[in-house]
Amino acid sequence: MSIKKNQKLRNLDPFLKREKERYKDPLPSREYILQILQQQGIPLAEPVLRKLLDITKKEVELFNRRLTAMIREGQIFRNRKGDICVMEKLDLIKGRIQGHADGFGFLLPDDGSPDLFLSAKEMNKALHGDRVVVREIGLDRRGRREAVIVEVLEHTNTQLVGRLHIDHGILFVVAENKRISQDILIAKEHSLKAKAGQIVIVEIIQQPNKQTQPIGKIIEILGDYTAPGMEIEIALRKHDLPYVLPPEIEKLAAKFPKNVLKKEFKGRKDITHLPLVTIDGETARDFDDAVYCEKADDGYRLYVAIADVSHYVKPKDAIDQEALNRGNSVYFPRRVIPMLPEVLSNELCSLNPDKNRLCMVCEIEFQKNGEILDYAFYPAVMCSHARLTYTTVATILEKPKGTEAKEHAALLPHLQLVYKLFKALLKARKKRGAIDFETTETQMFFNDQGKIEKIVPVQRTEAHRLIEECMLAANVCAADFLQKNGQTTLYRIHESPAAEKIEALRNFLKEFGIQLGGKNKPGAKDYAQTLLKIQGRPDAQLLQTVMLRSLQQAIYSPDLMGHFGLAYDAYTHFTSPIRRYPDLLVHRAIKAVLQGETYNPGDWNELGLHCSMTERRADDATRDVESWLKCFYMQDKIGECFDGVISSVTGFGLFVALDGVYVEGLVHISELPSDYFHFDATKHLLLGERSGKQYRLGDRLRVKLVRVDLETSKIDFVLAEPDKKPERAKAQTKTRTKTKAPAKGKKSH
Question: Rounded to an integer, what distance in angstroms lies between the CA atom of residue 669 and that of residue 679?
């Protein structure tokens, strides 16, 4: 083929114009390269492809980079001969690896098809999180689709946190992320003279392959794994949480004024005269919402004022990019990783008492029965008249003639009025059919060494629920406002339970003579009515736990799917822009509508996926920290016996939550009385084949603590009285589901 013909062929690229706009010397587009490969119908050697597309010597390096990028993204693939193939023609599957602590793993395909099993031998070629191409080879012994790794497209682990071990002079690091089961080999000259047992940061200098283990070098020594706060340092790095503010953000933050300037009042409604108050926990430092209620005709007018973060954080600036990267604040016990610089989160944007602050207001008019009549959004200037705590407000409402009430006499009528509104909102909530699950949250108290001294249940007062209902109302109005004005936003969606979960729940409830309404598509009201039916039953907590586990996880999405649990057709997050990025997006969207504009921050779907990911990432990190702290708390109690309740049943044993201690551990199936026990996932029980003995979710047990493993954050029990039949849960017993230390200033809405 002549060069002239090749040039003509290259000029036929349908994306040539786009490439010319992007590059001074454009190469053939990716789409066109794929098109040429498909037209040829066979794998092509790279020199043949270059000749076909008239790639000059000057362009070879850039062309190779383009091919490498296409390989990394799984568009093309090099076979054993080095020829270039179109991935779609090879029956290969692209996806991301999810490792398992026991060495094997799974491929999570990009196309959403079912997972494929990867043996421990295959997992030696890659690490958890890597993007790979696999070939399906059939079914394994358990009937699972099995695959082999053909090529690693992208290595995602460049650094990791782990613990240094030295065995017969060989140094290696065991990753804290147990999904990474390969040990990282360390040469002595790359050890920074770290000692065995220390927590270190490792940079991987050679990725694993079928011949060799991963090799790394230690770039930082964090210290002893029992040092105060080390559990948080590990979690930050293990979960890739951004925790260091870039220098440019520090510079920008230093330019903010100490207080709101008079010139910033322009274009805002002055509501500084309204006795708005903040109501938060005792340890809260960032106050992003304030409320005030007054009478309006035959109903109520509620003002929900939210910190106007969007005034200070501009789209695409450095602070905004870092806030997006973080996605949300992360609340560890005794430490917070804020989404925003402290000058904003704790000062300028925090609705501190007796300080003028910029805010966005949702002013809502309610009927007497709690139904929303009308609402309005507008930017304003406010001044919080008091910083109140949940405990204080609960005491004032309970004892309106008491000492606390006298100290806040000027605010008492307003608090009593918002309390009346709250009662009306509760009735509206019940009528709407929102689901109310009873769960126990806990708070950890620490000693001077940063370790747990005691764990106590949090007393949830009427004041907690009062603020929650006010915030829910504002969030609903925000969703309605944006929907009606055709402005895309991120909704907080909670989809209906999956069909298979509903079927399993119905089958479970039938055993107890309970029927879940709603036929094939039960609604929130059906769940709520069932919860009412089981109140007072000895097994109420068991039934509630199973119902709770049938629900899906709430996420952020631009798709208007409604919120199943709260029974809202449209719901979003407006009330916490200091600590949640989606709320900041919602504020910007509302302002755009008010100004007759449209707000477009980019791909809303991508933003929803990212914010949902950062939320899960924060939850995983805080769970890790709490689990380790609880293990440390329990390590001097080995040999002691405890009463508890089965909080989860699995194929390998029973998880038991201890009464009064709020710690969970495992009774392994091998520790149960001699028998073959079979797991029934639908009935949430283990059943003895010979004895017929059952261990079911919600059963009470007495257990003995036999092992605490700080390295894996695992607690092991054995039955203290193995011959005693497990006692069924009593009505007054509350099964503790996963407990969580309440975050500083964090609210559930």
Answer: 10
